[in-house]
Design a protein that fits this description.
The protein has about 120 residues and is mainly α. The chain contains 5 helices and 2 strands. The N and C termini lie far apart (about 45 Å). The model has no long low-confidence stretch (mean pLDDT about 85).
Length: about 120
Amino acid sequence: METVLSLTSLLAEYETPEYFFANVRQKEASALNRWNLFQTNLAKAVNILHLIYDTDFILGGYLAQYLQEEDISFLHNQIQQKTPFTEAHDFLLISKMPKHNISIGAALPFIQAFLNGPNI
């Protein structure tokens, strides 16, 4: 998945994410084609993982700050076309803290244990 879902597979040489997504939002053909292919590959990966784990997915990392509702809708449509099962609810979310999502996720079990208090 890293080969088709990495930032280097999405951006052209010397292209910044800001420049790329500005072109995507302005509907520039080359950037839009690359973005649609990237999202299609992402939808395939999320669909496979969702079929295995049957849980919600939070899209974070370097792309989260650029994702918009139209991107999530595109991903949902792609997943619905590929999955053999219909979903009762949306299971894709955009991280609210894209720069720190890994460290927050790693700390979550300890935070939950602290909030739940000692087991007596």
